[in-house]
Specification:
Layout (H helix, E strand, L loop, with lengths): L1 E3 L5 H10 L1 H5 L11 H16 L4 E6 L3 E11 L4 E8 L8 H14 L6 E7 L3 H9 L3 E11 L4 E10 L19
């Protein structure tokens, strides 16, 4: 289950970050910038501002209590796309919660938001996250070399994409590759 992040989530999220700092550090670049509960509170405020401005949409993952974060980290209005990101506490990994959360985000993205496509960018070596994208039917469409700096090294990202099923009937052909659809 997911719901929009709230200010009242600050203590639980901060606790999860602290308990999972070493585990999360393997794939998330922001941990050194999150050193107090005030940093978590600022993240929540920024997330809610992003929601109001329609530039992002951050949710918490819940399994009786908050156990992670998922959301649309950003949107690209020019191509009507959303970009999913997530993390979960190590003790909750492997229970299908991230898959369920991403499926819920997809329902929001392709439903009320009317997105044309959703992308998930995953560090090449992050096998659990890659499996989530593949399990949900996302197609590997490319990669970005040195996409992210993780403390002491670069990581490449694999790009997974899924088009809105309602738009799959619309496609480009060589004759109309300028963007027209049939």
């Amino acid at each position: 289950m997911i719901r929009l992040i709230q200010h009242t989530d600050a203590e639980r999220i901060w606790s999860l970050v602290e308990l999972n700092r070493k585990y999360l550090r393997k794939w998330l670049p922001w941990l050194d910038g999150n050193i107090s509960i005030n940093d978590t509170r600022k993240f929540i405020t920024d997330s809610l501002t992003g929601y109001e401005q329609k530039t992002s949409m951050v949710h918490v993952i819940i399994d009786n209590q908050v156990c992670g974060i998922c959301g649309f980290n950003s949107f690209n209005p020019s191509i009507n796309a959303g970009f999913i990101g997530c993390w979960i506490s190590e003790e909750y990994q492997g229970k299908g919660l991230v898959t369920e959360a991403c499926r819920a985000l997809e329902d929001i993205g392709f439903g009320p938001l009317g997105l044309n496509k959703i992308e998930i960018h995953v560090a090449d070596g992050n096998i659990p996250s890659r499996k989530v994208a593949e399990r949900l039917g996302y197609v590997e469409t490319g990669s970005i070399l040195d996409a992210e700096w993780l403390y002491d090294h670069y990581v490449d990202h694999v790009i997974y994409c899924k088009r809105n099923p309602a738009n799959n009937k619309l496609h480009r052909t060589p004759a109309n590759s300028a963007g027209a659809t049939r």
